[in-house]
Amino acid sequence: MAENSPKKRRTLPLQLKLEAVEYSKRVNNSAAAQKFKVGRNQIILWRKNEAKMKAELSGGKKSSKRQRLSGGGRTQLAAALNDRVRQWVLNMREHRKCVSRRLIRLEAMKIATELVEAGKLEANKFTASLGWLEKFLRRNNFSLRATTTTCQKPPADYVPKIIDFVLFLRAQRQQHKYTDANILACDETAVWLDPIGKNCITTKGAKDVTVQTLGHEKVHVTVMLCARANGTKVKPYVLLPRKRPVPAIVQKFGGTLILNWAGKVWMDNALTEDFLRRAIGPLAFGKRLLVWDAFRCHLSKDTKAVMSELKLHQAVVPGGCTKYVQAPDVSWNQPFKAAIRKYHEDWMLHGEKELTRGGNPRPPPMHVYLHWVVDAWASLSSAIITSSFKACGITIAADGSEDELIHCFKPHGQIPEGLPQLKAKSAEIVTQQPEVIEEEDHVDDAEAEVVVVVPAEDKSDDSEED
Do residues 113 and 86 lie in contact, with contact meaning Cβ atoms separated by under 8 Å? Predict the structure, then answer.
């Protein structure tokens, strides 16, 4: 360290300061300052505050690590300014608005101007500097976080839709007496063949964090995951990006995967029909319920006709609510994709990689990434599958005793205010002695997809389509 560099300030705990005081009493202030490597004036100040420091340390275990007396340190320029800026940040986040460091500084300057005009803050004293911003964030337990979800509406706006969906499912189950084996949920998800993550461990302060890839970050296959409420998993339905079947692949994965050599990786009406027939299939007796999202090909006339033929009812998750009440989105996709990334990392480190004529790496071979899909789907336990249906309000008790299991309505969920609203609406329906009515779109009873809950004395105009 250079001789002219400033000395770094040392912060000592109160216990050590008291030891320095005792040493100064036995010897002198200058000797204590030299021994504890502080200024002589500090020793004199500590001797003046000896009684206060002893009182602080008598507070218990938490006080033993204190480094300052209560009220020590630089005082805030304006406590009202801190409180108002903090409340502004909380209000912005409550409405799911994006808050940046720049916006905080601008809002702080705006509030400071108002305080100056009111005579509560001295003019030209506050500049909303970067140092103030760092201390403000630390003082109020704020931090810069990566965005996890984007939405057009705040979660509270979806509560009525979620409640209607949960009550719709409850009415369907009461009317048709579905068993857990006959309640299914499914969702399409992309399996990326070069899933490089956004984070990488490296040396602190490194300005460049370069990560080597295969150059195939946009190459993927589509997998339709489907399972039953009793925990039984259906074979994954995989759309492959080539049309010519490979006999060795068909023979190897025919028992664990349903392969469709479609030459594309997005679902349409024909592929949805193929999935319904091959993955779910017909049922000789009884009826079944399939819960999925409002993707266009799920709602087409062709798809409804196939579902009618298969005696399969559908419950469509309302738009914008899949992250709250769709079982795959809530519980399956994250561990499934985490397993895919783990297998990809192992393959990048230890797997054999083929090269093109130009020396560029090829994407993982088909048999490799299909193994990833099989193993990742097998890694999900039946308990996760079963609990996901309850967490989404699909198989909770009809009497409302399990409403607390809906994950988005839990105290620490995205929309905890939804639970009392759900209970209130359920009680209102019970009080009105509801009657379940089936509205038929076609001749066959299996095509009925709409269940409406209306009061017994008024059945005219309360129909609501799913």
Answer: no
Q: List, for residues 100-158, the tens digit of each pLDDT value.
A: 999 999 999 999 999 888 888 888 888 889 999 999 999 899 998 887 777 777 788 89
- C-alpha to C-alpha distance for 424 and 159, rounded to whole angstroms: 13
Q: Can you say whether residue 313 is alpha, beta or left, with left for phi > 0 and alpha for psi between -120 and 50 degrees?
A: beta
User: By the 8 A CB rule, do 324 and 162 touch?
Assistant: yes
Tell me the two tokens of residue 282: 């017909």
Paired residues of 225 in beta bridges: 187
The structure tokens listed for 404 are: 């607390």
| 18 Cβ contact partners less than 8 Å away, ≥ 6 residues apart | 46, 50, 53, 54, 57
Helix 418-431 × helix 159-176 angle, to 10°: 40
Q: Are 45 and 25 in contact (CB under 8 A)?
A: no
- Per-residue confidence (pLDDT) for residue 465, from 0 to 100: 39
- Residue 183 pLDDT > 60, yes or no? yes
Selection from 155, 279, 302 nearest residue 226 by Cα: 279
In sequence order, the 6+-apart residues with CB closer than 8 A to the CB of 432 are 455, 456
Report the distance separating Cα 250 and Cα 247, nearest Å.
5
**What is the model's pLDDT at position 457?**
39
Q: Which helix (H) or strand (E) holds 21?
A: helix 14-26
Q: Which amino acid belongs to residue 285?
A: F
Q: How open is the CA angle 47-53-57, to the nearest 5 degrees?
A: 145
Instruction: Kindly report the pTM of this predicted structure.
Output: 0.69
Averaged pLDDT for residues 389-408: 93
